[in-house]
């Protein structure tokens, strides 16, 4: 096994149900592969609907006692969990890099970021206040209290294997919900390691459960169909999100959806060009271009187009591609070879329609899931690189001439997650921010994510917000107490 950990017990490969590490019912497993080398890292218990049902029943049985604890008691346990994650950050980062591919520095950054959600929500959970409502009749009093929704099922993607889980588990557990996680089959080991630490932190049995398997739909059908689950929280693609929404409608579950994006970076000619180049490059090539808030379309005013492309291309041409465990690497492999083939297909289609390759444009010499970081010019809005989420290290640079055209192009998509704009003009910053249909706007800044901000999208990018003071709302129900006859 190509994995050396200070604490080998963090490498867990079974399912975690009701506080027990268990094999799948039929003993089957699925393979987890290292996207950089193609090597087998681990064989993980391949669960289906029956195991998911047991996890749901365990979570349902554990929920009343967990909800009865004080918020402070839950917070103390969550703080221990967050501390353990930070203490084990080096091992967790290695696990993440070998199963996901991102470079080690980014993996370590994600591990610490993932702990920040638990810490944040441990505290937010202590500040879930209700209301005393001015009464509508003198013989009655009105009070609104907030209660946990109950059993929560989380389905998460492979691009942020730890943070997407804790952004959901943090608020759920802090307010008294119990939790079942179904990580992506590409990256179950990070999730399993989090469960090892959850157990060590003293999270009671049944409060956190994990099932993963080679068939996502077998587990997904149970999680969305079982009436004991009161909330489904999902991060992933828009098509799967729509499917889960439809499935959850059958039992009218609460839902949170963090779906795809198609983020524009709009660069006006009054911007600080160097800052715009650095921001756009960081937002494009982080995690090899595999984040839902990655710069997908770089829109540059025609007067500075050539200057931008020249500077941007120089930065991108300097990026070193390789195995994320090695030193000096900027960009790791994509999640698997098929993902690399899909992204190159989009580049080829653009080139066929007249795009020019300023940098890269091909599979990397390392082969497999590695791609050359790529910059495309002479692109237009009819191309797939404009219309679709690229999810790879490819930056198409489009031209616009006026503020109105920039806003129109930015909004010309069914997505509305993150957008970025660079300008030195304060009035324009407000006009454009207010005119574009996005859940998050970075102004002269692309590093916007943190546990303190409300993360989420509009249009087909999703429902609900994660992180910030708003991130607990989706895990709470409001109950009215009307006291009469007073
Ligand atoms: P990505 O393109 O990032 O792989 P997906 O939406 O396919 O995005 O996957 C995100 C998560 O959704 C993963 O955990 C995946 O296993 C899960 N998933 C995919 N299809 C289904 C389904 N039919 N039911 C439940 N979960 C699913």
UniProtKB/TrEMBL annotation:
Record flagged with keyword Oxidoreductase: yes
Any one GO biological process: gamma-aminobutyric acid catabolic process
Active-site residues per Swiss-Prot or TrEMBL entry: 258
GO molecular function, one term: succinate-semialdehyde dehydrogenase (NAD+) activity
PROSITE patterns with a match to the protein in the record: ALDEHYDE_DEHYDR_CYS, ALDEHYDE_DEHYDR_GLU
Domain Aldehyde dehydrogenase, first and last residues per copy: 21-479
Alphabetic keyword roster: Oxidoreductase
Keyword Oxidoreductase assigned: yes
Family indicated by similarity: Belongs to the aldehyde dehydrogenase family.
PANTHER family xref list: SUCCINATE-SEMIALDEHYDE DEHYDROGENASE, MITOCHONDRIAL
Protein's UniProt name: NAD-dependent succinate-semialdehyde dehydrogenase
